[in-house]
Specification:
95% helix, 1 helix, mainly alpha
């Protein structure tokens, strides 16, 4: 392999390394978004359960006087 081919291959390897770093960052960002999104859904579910609990408690009080 001559110097020109080596230089081309080195450039290709550097480009692949940069792409790999960019893809890893994107994957990390997507995972973080997924975790944050799941936390929001969990928080919403907790709030819905609290509202339902309050409703049942109030209905019980209304029925029992």
């Amino acid at each position: 392999m001559n110097k020109k081919e080596e230089k081309i291959l080195d450039g290709m390897l550097e480009s692949l390394a940069r792409e790999s770093v960019a893809m890893n960052k994107l994957a990390s960002d997507l995972m973080r978004f997924d975790v944050e999104s799941q936390k929001r859904w969990d928080d919403l579910e907790i709030e819905q359960l609290k509202v339902a609990d309050d409703f049942v408690e109030q209905a019980f009080k209304d029925l029992t006087g």
